[in-house]
Amino acid sequence: MDEMQALDALGALSQETRLRIVRLLVTAGPDGMAAGAIGEAMGATSSRLSFHLTHLEHAGLVQSRREGRSIRYSAAYDALSGLIAFLMRDCCQGHPAVCTPAVAALAACACPSPEPPK
Amino acid sequence: MDEMQALDALGALSQETRLRIVRLLVTAGPDGMAAGAIGEAMGATSSRLSFHLTHLEHAGLVQSRREGRSIRYSAAYDALSGLIAFLMRDCCQGHPAVCTPAVAALAACACPSPEPPK
DNA sequence: CTTTCATCTCAACACATCTTGAGACATTAA
DNA sequence: TTAATGTCTCAAGATGTGTTGAGATGAAAG
Asked: How many CB atoms lie within 10 A of CB A110?
């Protein structure tokens, strides 16, 4: 991810409705959700929702596919991890004061670590 | 870091000038840089620079202290790591597809890992 | 083909953001 | 005090963003 993509992604995520959409789609899994279901969960009108979904798609953070009458949106996991990696690489140059606590916080969350302790 | 702080931080970073200022200040170290030196590095007028620095300070991403005639700005490392941790926790709930590659990308960068292999 | 359903597109408006230039404020030196 | 330096504040204008409502499009059912 280059700087321009990162700026787009950051801008897309810096809006309450869009951040919540991404959160919803990440937890929804790779199959994603139909636009209607997202709108219901967000309490958004169809045109408002369409505006934000288009914005997120242009920023590369979600992807869409038609399925019958509805359109399913799903999180672009690679773009999200790319953004986080960009922030860490960009911030961490010689300064682990940023990355070390961030990774430590991740270890304390429910996610499996890169090397699961199985 | 809660959602509102994260939105502020994401919005602050989603602007080219401000993202570059943060990058500059992170690499400048804890002592930071005087506003004038930042402006020179960015090629920005004093009022434009002041606008962006104030924006970043309100978002909690930088801090300032007066030093003689000049004002030194420095990166708020804790806020930056807090933002990254927020993104990972928020994105990673049950979905290591985001966090695992991000942490792996970090390991490939010049930064010391949380458990240095010394 | 017509209807229905799901979603998108468009124009309009309000509001926020970024940039600029002029000037104010605070700090130091003469 | 006066002058010089470094930075901030303010108002104005251009541009960008988010919301709404009305209507268009596309897909499936009758």
From this structure: 9
